[in-house]
Amino acid sequence: MLLLGLAAIQAVAWSTVVPAMQGADEPHHFAYTQRLVERGELPQSANPGTSAFSQEVDVASRWAGLSPLIANPAARPAWTGLEERSYREIEQALPDSARAGGTGPNSARNNPPLYYAWGALSYSAGYEGTLFTRLQLMRLGNVPLYLAIIALTWALTAELLPRPRWARTLAAAAVALHPQLAHFAGMYAPDVMLAAIWAAFFYVGVLLLRRGPQAPLLAALAGLTAASLLTHPRGIPIVVPALAAAGLTLVLHRPVERSTLMKLAAFGTVAALPVAAYLLSIPDGNVIEGSAATASTVRAFQIREFLAYVWQYYLPPLSFMDFHTTFGADLAFIHNFYGAFAWQEVTFSPTLYEWLRWLTHAGLLGLVVASFVNRRALRGHWPVLVVLGAAVLSLFGAIHYSEYREILNQGQDPRPQIVGRYLFPLLPLFGLAIAFTVTSLPRRGAAAVGAVIVAFGSLLQLTGLGLTFVRFYA
Amino acid sequence: MPRSALVLGLALLVVGIGGSLVPFLTEERETLAGTPIPPPLGGREEVVPIEPGSRICLDSVAIGDNARAARILVGTYFRAGQPLTLHLEGTDYRERTRVPGGYEDNTAVDFPITPPDAERLVTACVRNVGKRKVALYATSAKNESARPSVTLDGDPIGHEPGFVLLAASRTAVIERFPDAMRRAALFRPVPPLLVWLLAVLTVGGVLAAPLAALWLSAREQGTRGGDPQRSPD
Prior knowledge:
heterodimer; B: alpha+beta; 6-stranded antiparallel β-sheet
């Protein structure tokens, strides 16, 4: 409860420290929800030449100084009470139609609507308030999702690593203190919902493998898979571990009754219905039209080139590779993963990132060693490892495939697409891996390393919050 | 969990706060009083040429009672900088100030000002009173547009020159916290007092709760003989 209480405070703090519309892509997510509520339509269809944002958003941005603030560290939001009072006078005079515009192309239009339907509840709850009140409530809608990620990490670790007891606390603390996740818990963006769905999926998947094909677990698996698909295109990779979990459960718990298979088919069908309904609602049936994953590209996909790209993402190029890329894991999986706040312009010091890089490498090495040392015990958990491994590989595979397609699209001067929050769905495994590695150490050393990790996480969290607060208000 | 592990964690917290956070909070730096139009992002700078006698004006500039200087970034085309005047005009407030020529190319030019006694929305006009043209660094990106409308000799232009207000003296970050808390509560449905309360809860919680949770869960295991519980710590 202590960690959950802290996490709730952190999320509220982040939502207060970052001004409106300063979370990555937050204006587009807000506009999506506003269109959903005000016009009852998804933004997949757009009026070319018009703005994605309503008049209400424009007025709020002008008076609070939000547009020039985006990604510009030299800018500050409006700091005078006079500007706030002037805004309120103008806002009260706006017609109802001021909220209903914003039908132009929205960069979040490829996202399915589940998260925005969730946000619409908060938007509606604050309907009589200003845009700032509604956005604050929408941001706070992430708090239960964030708490769910932490609680499910705790539960997953308790299931897989029952002793020592503090291992689950360490895993949950590692996730709760993750600065970038806490930052996004205070923003209005679908990443936290996607991570919560995957966290629940991991827990349900493990229970399913261990306890067999019980109807509630099968229903939860199907529901979570559908929820992931309906939350974000990056939720699509969940299909691979979901199939692996269902398939392995049926194989491991043979013979399976016919009624169980019927229930599985029924749950799958019911879960597929909203996904199918969403797909059918998209104009011309192209679900992620314009996205890197499906768009027609300037150059053709080549498997050899794709593999060279993936290799170079993590390792130096080899002499025979004729494809070269400057993209790398350091930016996406260190800088943006641990902390690059607001529109990524608020960053830790280079020294701290260097520390994080070395600690991450040391942690990965420790995980390999711990896995080797505990290989006999791990062998007994092979179905769980297969499902968790499938989740990791499918997510990494999908984001690399998507970025490679973007490289093909953008020709000579491609921009990196992958950012650290794309790994949020795997954060429960991040916490679990830390707990597993640390508790593999001798008892006294394990406790000391665990305490150091938690203290370091506290410092990171506080540093991120402090830097962001100072960037906007001091 | 041995007590030494907890002590190690606490020691790291103390070292981290003492070695990093305290210097960050206490080092004195230039103090902003507002960014009516922020300087353009690096790589996106454009210039607005100001001919001798020409005047560029920005309306709806919010200025508080702590502003002591207004800053613009001026290019001089590789020659000595030209004298410039700044006029600020709003309800019950009028200020006129001047900077002499001779400053270097691509320099931040600060006009000393006497602020109004309360917050005002003013029109700010910069006039080139020299004999050669100068240029103000600006942006024309629509998606970075600030509130003030900009005119050059009375005609609207698409560029917005950076215009920043500075406070009197360099201050440490920690000295600015009272103002910062008030600013953080603007455009939010919360009073400044709640922001203060949240800050205290956050700092105290982040420093104490995680280590306490780890310690308590380890101690609970000790007292229960390692019997795992199934509720979050």
